[in-house]
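Postdoc handover notes: sequence design on the structure in folder B. Input tokens:
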């Protein structure tokens, strides 16, 4: 899930390979299955639950259940989870967090406010007004 690529086409290609269904007529159910897998991972499904879903797809479509379903379900889970984590991280990085974060005082000012009496703090502020800005 590199470079912002959407997860659904990748999941759909993986499902097409797994079920050995590459015909245009299969595109609709493969697309729906990819969306279902992505939704399952977003809802915290496990790879075992995805393997069960793959089995139900095979039964519904009348396809013999392919071998290595567990490995495929693990791969599908990782593809979807990587996309979800990437998208969440991108949203957080692009968010205006500065509006929600209060600027912390410098360490010297914080310590002075905790350790000095009010009179000493006032004297400290007069003597070193820009000490924390250095």
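Designed sequence:
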């Amino acid at each position: 899930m590199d470079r912002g690529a959407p997860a659904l086409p990748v999941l759909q290609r993986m499902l097409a390979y797994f079920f050995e269904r590459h015909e245009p007529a299969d595109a609709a159910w493969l697309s729906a299955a990819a969306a279902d897998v992505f939704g399952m991972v977003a809802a915290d499904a496990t790879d075992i639950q995805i393997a069960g879903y793959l089995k139900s797809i095979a039964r519904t479509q009348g396809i013999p259940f392919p071998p290595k379903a567990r490995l495929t379900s693990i791969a599908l889970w990782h593809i979807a989870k990587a996309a979800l984590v990437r998208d969440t991280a991108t949203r957080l990085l692009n968010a205006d967090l500065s509006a929600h974060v209060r600027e912390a005082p410098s360490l010297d000012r914080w310590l002075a406010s905790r350790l000095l009496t009010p009179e000493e703090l006032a004297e400290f502020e007069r003597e070193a007004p820009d000490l924390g800005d250095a």
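Context for whoever picks this up: The chain has two domains: 7-96, 102-133. Don't rerun without checking with the PI first.
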